[in-house]
Design goal:
single chain, alpha+beta, 41% helix, disordered N terminus
């Protein structure tokens, strides 16, 4: 990684952390520990210094290009309808073909209702997605952080019941550090591996 690119990423990270408050997040699965957690400064610095961060960013962009990363919910609901389940099956197939990679799921709500209730609702939506992915054969240990962003990051800024804001997003968050491919520094191999969507038979 060039010095200028590394300096740019460190600058962006510093700016982001200085303006964020994590007191509104409801985390689990080690989300607030130094050894885990998407966005954690210690982990971020490790990824920068080991040269992993650019590959993780590129892999995240690839994930977003190749499969839907977001599912939506009905008002005040955590139920995954048929469309959401189909999209999550595609996510699961992609995730299973990249066993070295960790993912995070972030739950969101619209701006209707109280902030505290929407944080709780966002967390329950994230849990619904995680549980579905686990049932599709994704190891729960690879879903390292489960966060609720509640109503804090709306897609559409409105107080109305906006369907686009009622969502859960799956994101690439890192590598499994004890995986042989990662331990050997073969990040490019992971990034450029072919994704064969028909890898697994269709369910049901």
């Amino acid at each position: 990684m060039s010095i200028s690119r590394r300096a740019l990423m460190l600058g962006i990270a510093s700016a982001g952390f200085s303006g964020c408050s994590y007191t509104n997040f409801n985390g689990e699965l080690g989300a607030r520990l130094d050894e885990g957690g998407f966005g954690n400064p210690t982990r971020h610095n490790m990824l920068v210094h080991t040269g992993q961060l650019p590959y993780i960013e590129d892999l995240g962009e690839r994930f977003a290009r190749e499969v839907p990363t977001t599912v939506n919910f009905e008002f005040d609901s955590t139920r995954l309808d048929q469309r959401a389940q189909i999209l999550l099956m595609r996510q699961a197939r992609w995730i299973r073909q990249f066993p070295e990679v960790r993912f995070s799921v972030y739950g969101h709500a619209d701006l209707t209702g109280s902030e505290s209730y929407n944080r709780s609702l966002g967390l329950r939506r994230a849990r619904a997605v995680v549980n579905f992915l686990v049932r599709q054969g994704v190891s729960r240990s690879r879903l390292e952080a489960l966060e609720s962003l509640g109503e804090s990051q709306p897609v559409v800024q409105t107080e109305d019941r906006e369907p686009q804001n009622r969502r859960a997003e799956t994101r690439v968050s890192g590598f499994l550090q004890d995986h042989p491919t990662v331990m050997n520094g073969q990040y490019a191999y992971i990034l450029h591996r072919n994704y064969v969507e028909s890898d697994a038979p269709e369910e049901g």
